[in-house]
Amino acid sequence: MSEVELIAQWRAHLTDARRRSPHTVRAYVSAAQRLLRGKQLISWDEVAAVEAHDLRGHLANRRAEGLSNASAARELSALKALIAYARSEAGDPDPSAPRLRGPRLKKGLPRPVTPDEALNIAELIDETASEDWIGSRDRAVLLLMYGSGLRIAEALSLRGRDAVLAETLMVTGKGGKQRLVPILPITREAVSEYAKQCPWPLTADEPLFRGAKGGPLSAGMVQKAMARARRALGLPDTATPHALRHSFATHLLGAGADLRSLQELLGHASLGSTQIYTKVDAASLLETYRGAHPRAKKR
After folding, report:
1. Does domain 3-89 have CATH number 1.10.150?
2. 140-144, 260-264, 267-271: lowest mean pLDDT where?
3. For residues 162 and 60, what is the distance between their CA atoms, to the nearest angstrom?
4. CATH superfamily of the domain spanning 115-245
5. What is the pLDDT of residue 264?
6. Where are the alpha helices (DSSP H) in 96-177?
7. Per the CB 3.0–4.6 Å rule, which of 48, 112, 235, 256 could disulfide with 230?
8. 94 vs 86, more confident
9. pTM reported for the whole predicted model
């Protein structure tokens, strides 16, 4: 076989057999291409022979190129899946992936989840779920929280009629207060993909997000899924579903959003609740300065 044939088969497996999201397929295919080219692998037998020390060296090279810890952990997950598939194709009676732990991030002060970490969390949850539709469901919920600043209860309150989202969504928050929030293309795509895969009928007035047995999805299940993902990615305990909403606010503020607009997007009753993000953003800026400026003194 050739690299092109291996990649085509791997893409078809992810798309047709595993029904992974287009974003996940792109990421997994890219990771596979880098490994195949770096190691000059042209058959499933050769891919199946890749061991932990080979992956360790490959990831070390990727880290030297500037890959973050979270992205390195995600790439490792993709390559483990590739090797497990290769071993299955090669007829290995125990087609498991090499045992290799992903990189760990140093624990420090609580901080917002970065854009890179947020997407890695959502994708890893999708990829490691017990069923494909459950992975798509949890990914959609988390992207609603990160991309639109929804509270977890607000995301879970959506109905079947919301399965096809527009560029904005009217959300009912605390105290029955309504607000208009933006919906990113990646979020619309994620919700649409979940709706296609959900085995339960999504009627207009029933909950959009369903549990494994068809009832309303509970916040606890989303929290457990994110806890598994943050451990796999080496993220701190502060990386909870609600932290995605905090990150939404912090990143908008850092990009120049004014407090009044942010207050409206978050659904805060008072501006005082929103002002906390000025402190978070200032703390993040100071941390970056101390780490990057040659004259900065760390205290």
Report:
1. yes
2. 267-271
3. 44
4. Intergrase catalytic core (1.10.443.10)
5. 64
6. 115-128, 132-148, 152-156
7. 235
8. 86
9. 0.57
